[in-house]
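Audit log entry. Action: structure prediction of a protein-small molecule complex. Ligand: magnesium ion. The ligand was supplied as SMILES and no pocket hint was given, so placement is left entirely to the predictor. Protonation state taken as written. Sequence taken verbatim from the request; no trimming, no tag removal. Recorded inputs:
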Amino acid sequence: MVEATITRAGTMKEKSVGGELEVRDVSKSYGTDRYPKTVVDNCSFTVERSKLTVMIGPSGSGKSTMVRLLASFEQPTSGAVLLDGKKVTKPDRERLVVFQESALYPWMTTYENVVFGPKAQGRQGASLADAARDAIDRVGLNQFQKSYPNQLSGGMQRRAELARALINDPAVMILDEPFRGLDAMTKGLMQEYYAQLFESSRNTHLFITTDIDEAIFLADRLLIMSNFPLRLRQVIEVDLPRPRRLADVVTSDAANQLKMTALSILHEEALKSFAVGNQSADHFIESYKQRYRSGT
Ligand SMILES: Nc1ncnc2c1ncn2[C@@H]1O[C@H](COP(=O)(O)OP(=O)(O)OP(=O)(O)O)[C@@H](O)[C@H]1O
Ligand SMILES: [Mg+2]
């Protein structure tokens, strides 16, 4: 979707405001009809327009499987994925995914990696070069346009991947644990960087994570997912002010309250991987709940 805005120079410019992605009663099973393995179990939720929605769930719960369904790399066994009310069945540039592992081509420079997708779509010339420079500029890699991935730090590689997605200006950007595996300091910097990118564009984003601090810092809306198989447990609106700084969120009472609410659900879900009736798990969850009830 586009809306017209008037630039400072007084000319009309079309600005993308993002799409709205709806997941309607989606299930996904593998295996045979007789012995199905259900990974996504009747999920329904909306990734609202111009918001940053964060999906958080335990490792192995089925989040990346859901991402593949959202991008139409795979089809749901039942239910449907809709973009702006229309059912989607094929991958396209409107729903772009940044994956948890690096997908940069090692034999291409940053610039070449960024223009590779649009070139394959037939875009060329000065407008493509301008768009590539703009995307690289937005992720702060101007000085590294001619560098190869192995000449970039881990954080820079993730930023190059963001540029590669940004140049397509997708209706919905889906990021599957893009900062997983980065050291704590780089991860913090990337989170602030990404929050600024989102705040400056206000497109529709879905960000997947297993990290509660990252989730609260980034989210407008938090989708808390179950343990395997994937279900929606709860939606939390995170109405912390923007622009956000990590230091402000860490010391915010409102953020900590939201974090405790989310954590109590996530811990319940994580403990489901223990055998039913496991006494130490039961004991742990009971003392955990009491701790939250008494606020200590
Ligand atoms: N093609 C497949 N066939 C059978 N099982 C699958 C298939 N794809 C995924 N699964 C199963 O689905 C489960 C969830 O995997 P998935 O990668 O979606 O989890 P995840 O939440 O993204 O985990 P993580 O946070 O560690 O990335 C795993 O147990 C996996 O074995
Ligand atoms: Mg995953």
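Audit: result stored. The longest helix spans residues 184-201. The chain has nine helices and twelve strands.
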